[in-house]
Amino acid sequence: MNNQSLPLVSIIIPTYNQQEYITDAIESALAQNYPSLEIIVSDDCSTDQTGQIASRYTSDSRLIYHRNENNLGRVGNYHNSAHNIAGGVWAVNLDGDDYYTSKTFVNDALNTIYHLNEDDIVAYCYNHSNLEHIKNTISFREIDENRILVSGKDYFLKYYEIGRFGHPNVLYRRDLGTKLGLYTVPYQACDFHSLIRIFLLGNIILDKRAIAYWRVHGKNTTIREVDDKQRQAMLTFDAIEEFARKYFSPEELVLWRKNMDTASYLDYIRTYISVNRNLKAVKLLLANPHLKYWYFRCWARILFGK
Q1: DSSP helix, strand, coil percent of the chain (3-state; round to 5)
Q2: Average pLDDT of each block of 10 consecutive residues along the chain (306 residues)?
Q3: DSSP secondary structure letter of residue 83
Q4: 187: closest CA among 285, 76, 273?
Q5: Residue 147: DSSP 8-state
Q6: Can you tell me the distance from the alpha carbon of 52 to that of 69, in angstroms, rounded to the nearest whole number?
Q7: Do 39 and 11 touch, CB atoms closer than 8 A?
Q8: Under DSSP, is residue 14 helix (H, G, I), strand (E, B) or coil?
Q9: SS3 of 260-271
């Protein structure tokens, strides 16, 4: 394809009071070598210097700086950006405190998708370093040593064992996302709820390469609200399970839900202990010796802060 026929890709950067980090996010997006690109910085009424910093880059025609008239909140900003501002055929969400470590990931993904010439590819997912395990778990078509094509339904059913994706690592078909209603549940895991439903609509490409850096700091929503994480996970699973009834048997969904609940609870324990060294952390660990190798790492965190 020539540049005129390349599909537009939207890199959406929702942000709020992230003046310390927004430069890295914007510059890593602008560094992409894919020719047909728009970068949308969606500022949710920041009260720090985020807007002024982002505005410095508007001389680049690829960058659109948008400031919401009212503070929409995290999920509302995600929703408005994807539904009402972005215009790409494909889209990817980069939170304003994260950044890309690869300058070629968009170009690599789109070249692969259109080289395969299959209409039912709905997403391209990076950071699946467990690719060999996935190959032993579900059916796949090998693309090369880094990538495989799998059914989104197979990936869904085995997600508790093989799944790993996050906002900056997934390019998705934006039209499918808007039809399903991206970012419509007010939970921490709104990205999971949005993207996993898109996966059910076709095939996905899994790539083992890491292409983004997720910063961990005191302002992270997932860290700051860790005590509420498990409750919200259950509500998210409820919504996904209801949507998935049209694709799977009741027996398949019962097993999926059981496995997802278990995996989510163990993840909650690990996350809680990673940021807390208190009596509750000790009790959680004593009650869950089945954390395998994580068990000793968590004790080291509680006892030594490591």
Answers
A1: 50, 15, 35
A2: 78 97 98 98 98 97 98 96 97 97 98 89 97 97 97 97 91 97 91 96 97 73 60 92 97 96 78 68 66 57 60
A3: I
A4: 76
A5: E
A6: 16
A7: yes
A8: strand
A9: HHHHHHHHHHHH
